[in-house]
Amino acid sequence: MSIREKVDEYKKILDIFPNDQEKYQYLIEKAKENDSFPLELRLDNFKVNGCQSQVWLVPEEKDEKLFFNSDSDALIAKGLVTLIASIYSDEKAEDIVSSEIDLMEEFELGVILSPARRNGAYSMLKTIKEYAKNLIS
Fold it and tell me: Is 72 a catalytic residue?
């Protein structure tokens, strides 16, 4: 499934929710589903700079594709990074770098997230793209 297709799938899911509070709850549920992050990977070199809470993104390359393991010490941030990591996992580095999708706009999350959380989400995406760029170079 392409990045665009994954975004469209999540968009369909989020559009089901009649209000912002339920979208917020969906992010919390995504966070609770992500319980497989090994504590030994909570290293400073995997921390995402620019996030209000602590967020870790760990890249792994397999078969010329990138996969991301993620975690956070805050539920909303963890839900966001889980969602973003799932969109860009199992993709080629070139496809990640060339993707210009604005997730905040696509998912209409800008309305329910504070400016600090929006900045954190952009930092998560920027970190994923940097990992991908480093593989290409």
Answer: no
